[in-house]
Hints:
The protein is an alpha/beta fold. The protein contains 14 helices and eleven strands. The strands form two sheets. It has an eight-stranded mixed beta sheet, with helices on both faces. A hairpin with a 5-residue loop joins strand 2 and strand 3. The chain is globular and about 55 Å long. The two termini are 31 Å apart.
Amino acid sequence: MRAFVAVHKDNKIRMASRSGGAFAALSRGFLENTHGSIYGAAIVQDFVVEHIKASNEKELRQLSGAKYVQSNLCKVLPMLKQDFLENRDVLFSGTPCQVAAVKELIPSDYSGKVLLVDIVCHSVPSPAIYKKFINQYPSVKEFVFRNKRDFGWRENISTITTQRRKIHTLAYCNLFYNTANMRPSCYNCPWKAERPGDITIGDCWGVEQVAPDMDDNFGTSVVLTNTDRGQKWWEQLCGVMRYKEVDPELVTKQHALNQPLGLPSNRAKFWYDYHNMPFHVFVKKYGKMSIKKQIRIVVSGFKTANKGVHNDQ
């Protein structure tokens, strides 16, 4: 394994990404070099999150940004299988368990180019809670899971845009990071330390210690090349990134890269409340924002607006 800290040179692309733009660099570069198929998570009709197949720049833009909810693979699995059977070039990005599943679809005689990219995954939360959260708001036009453009990369602030107003809240991310909101399989995830992808990408938490010159609170990526194939693709596609190689031990201390989170003692109570409380009461209890955090939203927004981000291209 080799490790890199990276940010995209084009800040328009970087700001459309959740972290430093590593996925944008890999997916766009792969498409330009192979004219193959890119598979990744997108927000589609009615704010459902599912994997789609992208074969051009317009479709690729749908894959930008993080989606903090389980993505449905059902529609793309037949497409993937057909691409592999026809030896088409494929880049697939997803959670480690999704990548591990897709590896099982690759035929032994497959001769196309493939790049498997797994993400640093905290856990897979409930799609039902996500759906109810969105449905609380009338006429939603846009939902941003984590709004770094207005509040900076380190904040967990979601923004819901309706026809009448914008609502900034920590509630959804508070629910997401609640370990009771994880699928049962996540408590025994085998893919934390053993990465199934050729490349692993995610947020580079701790960048202020590892590469302070790349820490401007607008998002920095960690890139781990886990296979020779992954390293070759990174070397081929990393020209659009500003990056430095670092000791893997410095960037793999994140809990999500080492071991699964433990089963919380309040999980049964959490789901009992979900099924028995009015949903707005449930959100208030488990996604509650303190006065201190509400003030932090205002302060973070003010600091980010005044700091700004320049465009290198």
